[in-house]
Amino acid sequence: MAALVTTYGGQPVSAPALREVPLEDNRDALAFVDALVRDQFNLVILLTGVGMRALLAVVDRLRDRAAFIEALRRTRIAVRSPKPAAVLRELGLSAWATAPEPNTWRELIAALDSRRSELSLQDARVAVQEYGAPGTELVAALHERGAEVLSVPVYRWALPDDPEPLRRAANSIADGAIDVVLFTTATQVTHLLEIARRSHLETEVRQGLARMAVASIGPTTSEELREQGVQVDIEPSHPKMGFLVREAAERADDVLRTKRGGAAVG
What we know:
The protein is an alpha/beta fold.
């Protein structure tokens, strides 16, 4: 991503904001695997590729991979994005339903609704592989349609091992030294503000964001920004990193001139 920013003439400030931490207690994941092998689910929903890989790592350590894959083959699988679909292809499997862009829980539910003649969610037993945080909106929508839902957490988000780059970025935002910020996940938003609070800079960081061009990769991240009181200025036409950087490069100057009353960028 930093290389892309440089390509478009920007000066990247890299600030890793999260890391994926496998859950030490895998009881829920193992309970899901055992129930799946016993054909106890009508539908399995995979939200992330990294989550599916983490689940496979649990299976490889403690269960039979071949039995798990065959159980998946017998079960309808829905995916939120191309990444878990790619993992399925590596296993020789395919998704029964796929959410279209921008790949949020809303598109996933719409995809399931469009195929209700094949599988009604009323009284269906559905397993949902979580993606670092509980998918509360998705689970609620499934419950509204009458499904019985099992959430399967396999990893969680945490602050990076070295939070110093993120702390420096928060200071630079507070000082007005950065013009554009690019967010690719909702968790980056909450972790930036958490670091700002720890540094007693939350007010200054929020003020800095209000004067910057804030770019979000897609609706889920944008929703978190708005819930945190941060205005989203740029959301790309497709929720992909390349589109995010390119469209931020194309639009940031206009955004900054508007926010800063016509002042020069930089």
